[in-house]
Structure formats: structure tokens, C-alpha cells
Amino acid sequence: MDAGRTPSAGTAFPSFAAGTGAPVVTLRQGEALTVRQGDAEPLSLRLSAAEGRLILTSRPAGPADAAIRGLSAAIEAALGWHPELERLALDLGDSADLADALRRRGIAVETAAAPLTILPELFMQQADAWLGRPDLPAFPQRLVMTDGKRHPQRPPKPQGTVYARFIPWLEQTIAFRAATVEDDLPHLHKWMNDPRVAAFWNEDGDLEKHRRYLSGLIADPHMLPLIASFDGVPFAYFELYWAKENRLAPFYDVQDYDRGWHVVVGEDAYRGRAYISAWLPSLVHYMLLDDCRTQRIVGEPAAAHHQQVRNLEKSGFAKIKNFDFPHKRATLVMLLRERFFGDRLWLPAAAPAELAA
């Protein structure tokens, strides 16, 4: 599906609100939306995209939290189906408890346009909708020393699925899960020995080398290896790192919660701009949601990889400078939290060409 295409009647949009088990599904028939949460009585709404208005028409009895999950799913679907909407007025009728809860959570705010207004740049920062552990607050800050580097103590690493989001222009779900040696060593071994990957990573080798490599990253508190999939099919390997403890830290004015990443797209079927338009912003989205104190996402691609640097610039990253690691000449790139959400970079821009090895 193209990013701006209006869905046909009956289109289903799954939302992965954490704590609900199966996805919360929004079904559309004309302007009528029906939100289903398992066997519970559905939530009903009316979406007038032309007016930028979402109207609650029927709410089942029960706790406000269930209704908020349903409303959040409907909002995500409305904004996903209509990315041109810069705001969405929400009419809840006499459900004052819901209105108050939405304001307190920052899902809705009062504007001159409507007492309850959904702003995409606020809504997309609601960790409940996409993270596998939204109930955890920001980890308390305690400064510690590691190898002569002073940095915040990092939280325990997550397990299982950490992020999932339906991509409407692909009509597929992207998900990230924490890598394990038991499940993912074969993927890593295959992908690292792909000549195309090895040319940039220089990590080709035998199975035992890759077992040690992955085990070391899993044990390292500042690294988080992830496996990415589309509709359950693994296609890529990501390494996320806290920049303060990373080899990158001495080369710029690093902040405590800066986050960086490396990527291997291992499956040829998932290379190219259509998939990059989904996995790259989703990866950035996850890093920004994982800790609300993260204000900058950084990267250090090889300076000689001109296509990758250009594609990152097209995706919102600013080129800061070139510098020399011991093993390569690199380009420092950076994306600000304010720009990602303010410019709605979770949506496809001018689609970049193939980005990753």
C-alpha cells in the first residue's frame, strides 16, 4: 500500500498495545471503525478524515484502561491510513473519565482547534502502543564507572519481542526481538559470511567465532543485539549501543543517553527502499521510546560508503564530521529526537536507495 492511499472498506489495522496478548485490531467500513480486543465487546467510532475528526460512538462497560487501549489503536489506525493528517480532533461525548486520562497521559491536548486534539508528534511517543515492556518507568539514574568511562547504570536487558508496528504501506508487521545464541546463531553466521556483508563488517568466520561474538554482545551491558523480522520472517541483525560507553564516545561531545546502531540486512528479498522506509524509522522509533531521556541517535558509517551516508541524510540524519577510528575513517551522523517526531520521520520521505550491507 502506498503511504497516502485510502484503505478499502473492511481494511484491518493491527495495533500492538502491550499487555493485551493478541493485537488490538481496528476494522474499517466506510467511516465506521470497530476496535476489537480479543473476546471483549468492541469499541465503535466514526472517522471523518476530511474533517480530521474521530468520534466515539459506543464504548463497552469496563475500566478506562481497556477503552484507552482501544482508542489508541483507533488513533494509530487513523493516522496510519491517513498520514496527511497533521492533527485529529477527538470527540468522546460524555466520557469525561477518558478525556481526563488521555490528557494526563499526553495522548490528547487542548488546542484552539478542539478541546481534545491528537498530535502525531505526541502520540508517536506513547510507548504503550509499540514496546514490549511499557509498564517499566525510566530506569533511575545512578552514575557508575566502566573502563574509565563515567556513565549512567543501564537497565537490565529486555528479552523476547521489544517492539512491533504494523506498516500500512507494506501491509506487513515489523518486529524486533532480543537476539539469543540458541535461536539466532545460525542467522548471524549465515549473514556475516555473506560476501556483501563481510566487505563492510569483516566478521566472516566459523560458527564458533560467531558464537563467541554474539555471546559477548549479549553479556555487554551497553550493547543490545536484536533480530528484525517482517511478518515473522527474520531478515536483519541490529546492534544497539549506549554511546557514552562505546568506542565512539571520545570523538564527539557525547551525552548520557545518546544511542547508536549498526545493521546487517541479511536477506536479499528485504533489501531496497520499500523495506528501508519501514525498518530504519522503526529502529529509531524504538531507541527513542526505550528511554525518554534519549535525545540523539548517532551513527558512524564508513566515510567511504558514500551511498549509505547520503541515504542517512535523506532519512533525517545530519552529517556532523569525518573522523578516524583505528580501523576505519568514519562519518559521524546524528538525528535529534525533536526532528524525528516534529518532522514525522516515521513516515516514508523521498525513499532512499538500498542502505545497508
TrEMBL record:
Source organism, top-level taxon: Bacteria
User: Which pathway does UniProt place it in?
Assistant: Siderophore biosynthesis
InterPro entries, per database record: Acyl_CoA_acyltransferase, Acyltransferase_MbtK/IucB-like, GNAT_dom
Record key words, sorted? Antibiotic resistance
Q: By its UniProt entry, which SMART domains does this protein fall under?
A: AlcB
Which residues belong to any copy of the N-acetyltransferase domain? Answer: 174-339
| Name this polypeptide is given | RimJ/RimL family protein N-acetyltransferase
